[in-house]
Amino acid sequence: MGFKESIFHWAGRTFFERPAARRSVVDHAAALSKAGDEVRVRINGKRPTPKNVARLRHIIGIERWGQARLRVFLGEPLVMDGHHPYKPTSTDWDTLQTEFASARADTIALAGQLTTTDLPRTVPHNQFGPLTARGWLQYIRGHAQTESKLMR
Hints:
Oligomer: single chain
CATH topology: Four Helix Bundle (Hemerythrin (Met), subunit A)
Structural class: mainly alpha
Strand order of the largest sheet: 1-2
Order of helices and strands: HHHHEEH
C-alpha cells in the first residue's frame, strides 16, 4: 500500500468507522432521515445554477453508488465501479430534488434491511478502503451533508 492510499484508509477509519461504531444501524437510519430532511431544506433554498445542478447530481450519484455497496452486505456481488454511472441524467432542479429524496428513502430502507442480516465484515470503498455497514452509512450521510453545504 502506497503512502497516499495509507492516508485515505486512515481517513476512512478516522472519519467514518470511529464515529459510526458509536451508533447502531437503527440509529444510523434515524440520522440519515434527519440529515436527509436538512439537505432537502438546504437545497430547496438554492438556485439551479449549473454548479448547483452538477453538485446535486454528484450527491445523488454517490448516494446511489453507496446503496450498491450496501447491497453487497445483503448478498449482491461487489462491482468495483465509481459513482458516475449512478448520477441522474436529468438537469431539471425540481426533478433532481425529488430524486435525492427518493434516493435517501432507499438508503434508509436498505439500512433497515441491514439490521436483520448476517453481514460481511467490510465492503471496500474505492478511496477510503474497507468500511463496515455502519461506516458506509456514516459516509453516505456525511457526504450529502458536506456537499450540500457547498452550494451557493
